Structure formats: C-alpha cells, structure tokens
Amino acid sequence: MFLDERSASLLKLLQHSSIPSMGEIENQTGLTRRQIQYSLGKVNDWLQFNNYAPVQYKRELGYFLPDKIPEDEISVKLTKQSYVFSEKDREQVVYLMILLSQEPLSVFHFQSATGVSRNTVLSNLQRLKEVASEMGLTIQYSKQFGYIITGDSRVKRFVIEQLLHEVLNSPNRQMITQCIWSGFEERIAAVHEKLEHIEKQLGITFTDERLHELAYLFFSTDQLIGKGEELDQDPSWLPFAETKEFALIEAMINTAAFQSRWSQTEKLYATLHLVSMNRTKDRSPLRDDQMFRELLLQVTDEFERLTFVHLQDKDQLCEQLYVHFKPAFYRIKYGFPHVNPMMERVNKIYPELHHLTRKSLKILEQELGFQLPEDEAAYFTIYFGGWLQRQGTRLDDRKKAIVVCPHGIGVSNILNYTLRELFPTILFLDVLSVRDTAEYPLDYDLVFSSVFLNTEATLFVVPPILEERDKQKLNKQVMQELYGYAVPDSDVDGLMKLISKYATIHDANQLEKELQAALYTQTAGTHTYAVKEAEKPVLGELLTTQTLQLKQQVDTWQEAIEIAASPLVELGTVKEQYVTAMIESIEKNGPYVVITPLVAIPHARPEEGVLSLSMSLLKLDETVDFAPDKPVQLIIVLAAADSDSHLRALIQLTTLLNEPANIEKMLEATDKEQLLEIIQTYSKEETE
C-alpha cells in the first residue's frame, strides 16, 4: 500500500514531534481542515495496513504517533496530479528521456511524463536544442524514429553524467527518477547491491551520494548500449584492463541486473568511474602510490610557507588528501566531470584561503601537467580549512597584504620574501604589478609598494631592496599602524660611549653599523652573523675570472649547483656542507631559486657553511631543468655571510637580470671576458 504525497508529508511531520492542535497542523502544512482530515484517514489506513497504531490525540500532547516508524518504510506513491514540475525538472526529464529511451518519442510522451501542455513541452524542447547545440549535439525529430539526439558519444556520456548528478542531488529526485526509470527499480537496487559488494572487495567506502550516482550511471550505460550508443575505443584506458576493478566490473555486468552486451571499452569506462569516485575510506592510503604521497607533502609544505602556519599532524592530513585526490586524479586525467556543490560557497566565504590553496596546488599541477578544475581545487580548500579549524588556527583574523613592485620578477621575489620574513603574522596574498593591482579581486588591508599608489588600504612605500635601516623603519611604521605602538630605538650612541670607556675602538663606523644590525635582529627575534667586510663589495668584486665558469651541459640541477659552487669551495669561502644545504633546501621547498626565466640563484643560510661573502656563476650552453617547467642556463651561487654585506652586489645583480636583453647577452657569451664586461657595466652603477 502506498501513500499519496500529501498524506506522506503529514505522516513525516508527526514522526518528528507531536502537533498540539488542528489549527497548528493547518499553519504548518497550508492545508484546509477538510484536506487534513482526509489525509489523516489515509495515514491511519496505511498505519493499520503495516501493523502500526493509528494517529492519536491527547489534550496535553495534541496529535502524535504512538509507534516509532523508520523513515525508509514510508512508501510514497508520487503522481503527476500531486506534483508540479518546475521548468528545470521538465528539461531534465525530457533530456534524459531522449538520451536513454529505446522507443520512439513524441511530444505526447513528454506531455504524459510531465503533465503539461503541448506548447509548454515544445518550449522546453526549443530550449534543450539550444543547450545541446552548445555541447555540439543536435536534437531532431522524424516520424519514423521520433525525437533523437546525435553527436559525439563521449559528449553524450558527459551530459548524462552531469544530469545524473543534478537529478540525484535534487530535492525532487524521487519524482524525476520515477518518470525515467519506473519499472526498473529492482534492477537499479541490484546494481547498488553489487557496488556495495565491490566496496568490500576493494576495501574502500564510497560517499553515499557517489555510490547512488554510480548505480544509476552503470544502469544508464546498460540502457545506452542496448540502444546501440557505444563508446569509441580509447587506447589510454587499456592499462586499466589489468586491474582488480576491471575484473569486478566484468563480474558485475554478468548478473541479471544488466541485459546488454558490454564491449571492453564500456567495461573500461565503468572501471575508470569506479576508481575516480569520491570515497571516505581507502584500505591502505599513502602506501600504494609514492608519487602522490610526495606531491601532497610538497603541497602542504607550500601551504605552510605561504600562510606562515604550522599544520599539526601533517601526515594524517596527507592521508585524508590522498584518499580524496587519488580518485580525483583519474577524473581529471580522463575527463570525467565532477561537480562540487560547495564550490561557490567556498569562493564566497573563504576567498583568501582558497586563493592560497590554489597557489599551493601549483606544485601538484606542474608535476602532473594539467590544471585542477575549480571544483576539485575547492575540495583542497575545504580540507585545509577544516584542518586549521581543528587546530584552532584562523586566517581570517590576520591582516591581509599585497606587495606591489614594478621592478621585475627578480626584485619582486626578493622584496616579497623579505617582507614575509619580517612580518610573519601578516597574510601576504600576492606580488602584483601596478597595472594588476587595479583589477585584483581579493580584499586586502595593507599594501607594501616600491612606488606610490592611490589606494584605500594602508600603504607602506618601501625600497625594492630593504637594508637593515629600512627594515627597522618599516617595522616601526607597521607596528604603530597595526598595534598603536612601536619598538623603541636602541641606544647605540650610549653603547658606543660605554664601549669606548673600557676599550679601544679601531673602526667606530663599522662597529656602530654592526651594533645597529645586532640590536635590531634581537628585537625581531632572528639571528645575525658578523660582517667580515669593511665595505659592501660591488658585483664585479665577487664575480671574477676565478668564480666564473662556462660549460656545455650537465645532467642534473644538483650537478649544476655542485659545479657552480666548486670555485667557492676551492677558494675556502664556503664549506662542502653549504653545497649540500643548497641542494637540500631546493629538494624540500621546490625550485624557488629560479627567480626569472633561465636564471637560478641557489643559496642557503649563513650558518650552514659560509665562511665569507662570495658569489660564483656557471653559464651552460644547454638548459638543465630545476623543475619540469623551469629550465635554467645561468646558475649564480650566493653565499651571504650575514644579512647586510651582500646587498649592494645583489641590488646590482637584480638590476642586471631585470633586463631580458642582458640575460640574452650573457647566454650568448663565449668566454669569461664577455661575461665580465657585462658584469662590470652594472658594477659601476650605484643602485639605491
């Protein structure tokens, strides 16, 4: 026995709580008293038929159910007379009927299914023709075959997958599925059961929504094969024929739920959907695919770097990311669509978190060779956001900043890196050109710019290369702006007088500089190292005949760094451990040293083996890849003994590299003299 929709709704209302009066039922349902009494009678008939006590009434409680009734036991018979389709519902029904039906279809069939007039159906068909045309499909009619759809079979599958996702996640899914698959309920339930068996065999658990979608997708595939709509062979799918998933698909389609003869291509199509569906559990995460594991660890490391946040239990987070990403990888690689219903909400509520997540994912995208769709990237944002919330970390209460620098990528990267280190509590979103700033979509509170800008945000104008005195000045300005106070200046004059009272000072100016640097970095909570040079050397004093090398090629970027640094090891300005530290830093943090196309400036921290300030340069005739999309021919090793003495030479080097023509000249050089001539030109220029 079935209930009509109205009676079923009333029963479900009573399931959850008692209702004090007939008037309250009228208010909650919008029904008249007579309609309610009629529906109550139907409800009681259904209850008695299923051996439940009827609805009762007590003055102190009102109307209530004496027995608890499981939700899935309420059998509702939906009818066209009790349900009015929306325009979107009608279009979905008509579209699926044309795609899946094996009998000729006329306007009458669509009228009968949706309960609307001929003109309304014709209007819906016209709209569908336009939608189909945008996908390269054509809906046409003939007296012999009725309404059919022609076009690429893969596109048709894509459309069906999208429609299934929309319909099965719609509040009206029960009525729509009845229109399309009425009479096939037992076969679809059997497919669902087989998929649950496959879950156990593979040791995985699909999300409820995806399991439901798979059942309908595989049944729809059987319908399509039955009407002759088969896929063309795709050689890229063939490796999956050797998988356990393929064998399980073969076993599934040999059951009574499937009536068509599936080709190998169709079995592979189902196999790929099996491996690409979202899941909540994987039997052995992170053990099956070492490449995925390493890439996801790099993504989390990059996220930490960009946000200045320490992710707790990072291995556990990577396990969760792996369980999600493994099926997502196959979806993206083989072009199976997937809709994330939370994408718009993520973009709207967490724009900065999503932006920084997308930047973190570039490592993954570069390695895999394709860009993650927004729907897939939004899932990573959700995972990172949930993890931050779990550990009580918030990004939305931090000040957000952009860095504006028109001086080229080399200077921009140096400035951005310096500011991140100087202000770890500020969330730096992007480095922009002046032109890009006007159209930047995210909100920000602060702007650090090397040129003056008209902006509503708080503006700090900074030099492109920050020296210690610049850092001190900027630190005070930012502290005053954000917190209303600044760290007081250190009394260097007082210290100089105190030292001169008990000791002989041989170089007062240099001592004053080092005291300023030491006291500033103590306040900032960092370390400093003694400056051995009395003056900051120019670029030409560091890059000399002894430290320049020209070579045709190397096999790896690690070898390039070792060769480039070898003159410094021989001169005794760095230890061997510094070379190792540079390589390990890139292996851990990625090819961040590639500051501009074809140019890398590898370096490490002073305490990792720098004995004195030095530089060396290796020019290669053939490129070596620091990453798949980062070829390099100029490797300039920087060994800074402190945070100050190398800045003059670094400014000159940055100015030199900001001109693409200079890089071309250096790459065209055939001997050291030609390289030195370019270097000396910029060593003579003073860049402030």
UniProtKB/TrEMBL annotation:
Limits of the PTS EIIB type-2 domain: 399-486
Any Pfam family hit: PTS_EIIA_2
Subcellular location: Cytoplasm
Domain PTS EIIA type-2 span(s) in chain numbering: 541-682
Chief place of localization: cytoplasm
CDD domains: PTS_IIA_fru, PTS_IIB_bgl_like
Listed PROSITE patterns: PRD_2, PTS_EIIA_TYPE_2, PTS_EIIB_TYPE_2
Gene3D superfamilies associated with the record: Mannitol-specific EII, Chain A, PRD domain, Winged helix-like DNA-binding domain superfamily/Winged helix DNA-binding domain
Domain PRD intervals: 287-394
Keywords of this entry: Cytoplasm, Kinase, Phosphoprotein, Phosphotransferase system, Transferase, Transport
Role played: The phosphoenolpyruvate-dependent sugar phosphotransferase system (sugar PTS), a major carbohydrate active transport system, catalyzes the phosphorylation of incoming sugar substrates concomitantly with their translocation across the cell membrane. The enzyme II UlaABC PTS system is involved in ascorbate transport.
Stated name of the protein: Ascorbate-specific PTS system EIIA component
Provenance organism: Planococcus dechangensis
